[in-house]
Amino acid sequence: MQTVQTILEKHRVSDSLAQAIHCVLDCSKEISVLLQKGAMAGVLGSAENENVQGETQKKLDVISNDLLKERLAECPVVAGIASEEEDLPVAANEDGQYLVIYDPLDGSSNIDINVTVGTIFSILPSRGEDPSKEATYLQNGRQQVAAGYVLYGPATMLVMSTGKGVDIFTLDPTSNEFVLTQEQVQITPSTKEFAINMSNQRFWAEPVQTYVSDLLAGEEGPLAKRYNMRWIAAMVAEVHRILNRGGIFMYPWDNREPNKPGKLRLMYEGNPMSMLVEQAGGLSVNGEINIMDIEPEKIHQRVPVFLGSKEEVEKALSYHKA
Ligand code: FBP
């Protein structure tokens, strides 16, 4: 039985980075218990507050955010944190080597209906810069030293990369240990499955309109293939499906708010998921370039996302270049 620590040692990950990762994972185990208790623990429903994105927070958004913030602040190797639920970065330990950026509960709209959600994390080097300053965190996705998510579904699972491939672990409820269950996962290059919120179709730009209508045209259409569709409304669950059986996940720009490039956030959704997808042989782009090559300008900036099976994402990209 191989645990997270076994794999971190196998990949020669430094003790300090391992410490930061274990801090995130210990919090995720507590979040998993809270989600399983749900209404019994009185943690379902809205918190009646709005976050910096103008979204109504769920009670568990706030609880999981505070738990991670408190624990990471106590972890000596962590210089600072940034979160979907925090307007500004939070400085932690002056001598800390790492910045931890996270989405405490991705897929929040699923919490009250007992559907899969997850915690997404991205770890960057602090470079001795001031962790209370937003600029310190504005590093492109290729600077990530680790990225992953914990999926709270029928099983609680961890998917992680430290730049040496992607490994998947399952939380053993008996030992409360994440145990390795899939090693060095690779995404199939081609697929017959796509995920996009079709209800936004009328707002999409022409390349996405054309590509998606060709997907829907099936065998008789220009792509000459019958595609199936999925939408779980939780990016963690979509990416997990793609790591396991291929596919393409899209959340494109749309003209509802023309100046807002899509819904998903670059620093704590786009970049960590892109590191996992690329490390597993897939592709992740914004319609023009690889997401991890984008130079960030703001902690909460948004990014259009097209990720998954390499050949299919290249196909989607070709519609943008046509
Ligand atoms: P949160 O992190 O606020 O939950 O938002 C992101 C997200 O829930 C993604 O996980 C998911 O892919 C998408 O928004 C769902 O969007 P929509 O509500 O348009 O279906």
UniProtKB/TrEMBL annotation:
Its main location: cytoplasm. The keyword Metal-binding applies. Binds 2 magnesium ions per subunit. It is an enzyme of class 3 (hydrolase). One of its GO terms (biological process) is fructose 6-phosphate metabolic process. The keyword Translocase does not apply. Transmembrane segments: none annotated. Its cofactor is Mg(2+). GO terms for molecular function: fructose 1,6-bisphosphate 1-phosphatase activity; magnesium ion binding. Keywords: Carbohydrate metabolism, Cytoplasm, Hydrolase, Magnesium, Metal-binding. It catalyses: beta-D-fructose 1,6-bisphosphate + H2O = beta-D-fructose 6-phosphate + phosphate. It is found in: Cytoplasm. Residues 188-320 form the Fructose-1-6-bisphosphatase class 1 C-terminal domain. Pathway: Carbohydrate biosynthesis. Its EC number is 3.1.3.11. Residues 11-183 form the Fructose-1-6-bisphosphatase class I N-terminal domain. Substrate binds at residues 106-109, 197, 263. Belongs to the FBPase class 1 family. Homotetramer. This is Fructose-1,6-bisphosphatase class 1. It comes from Bermanella marisrubri. The gene is fbp.
